[in-house]
């Protein structure tokens, strides 16, 4: 077995186990009286997913463009005058 296939096997196993754990935890939380049912579960999911995205702000890549530079390029479109 090569290193790449080992990596994919481990990634698949981790995804399967954590997916099962998420289903079990979600069903448990949805049935708790003080958790707010499914609405509370969706709110908790949204908060945790947003929190999981925050560390991506600190990722640096060579040749990457900062968000400020991208914003200026995308929204600094000047109107061109086309002669009729």
Q: What is the count of β-strands?
A: 0
Count of individual helical segments: 3
What low-confidence regions span 5 or more consecutive residues with pLDDT below 50?
Answer: none
What composes the largest sheet?
none
Global structural class:
mainly alpha
The shape is: flat
What is the terminal separation in angstroms?
A: 68 Å
Q: Measured on Cα atoms, how large is the radius of gyration? A: 22 Å
Helix content: 55-70%
Secondary-structure element order, as H and E?
HHH
Compact description:
This protein is mainly α and 84 residues long.
Describe the structure.
The structure is a single chain. The chain has helices at 3-31, 37-53, 67-75. The protein is mainly α. Helix 1 runs antiparallel to helix 2 (37-53). The protein is flat and about 65 Å long. The longest helix is centred in the first third of the chain and has 29 residues, at 3-31. The protein has a domain at 3-56. The relative contact order is 0.05.
Task: Give the SSE layout.
Layout: H1 3-31, H2 37-53, H3 67-75
Helix pairs in contact: 1-2
């Amino acid at each position: 077995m090569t290193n790449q296939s080992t990596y994919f096997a481990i990634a698949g196993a981790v995804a399967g186990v954590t997916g099962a754990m998420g289903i079990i935890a979600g069903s448990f939380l949805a049935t708790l009286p003080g958790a707010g049912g499914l609405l509370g579960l969706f709110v908790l999911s949204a908060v945790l997913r947003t929190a999981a995205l925050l560390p991506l702000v600190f990722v640096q890549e060579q040749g990457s463009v900062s968000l400020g530079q991208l914003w200026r390029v995308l929204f600094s479109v000047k109107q061109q005058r086309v002669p009729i």
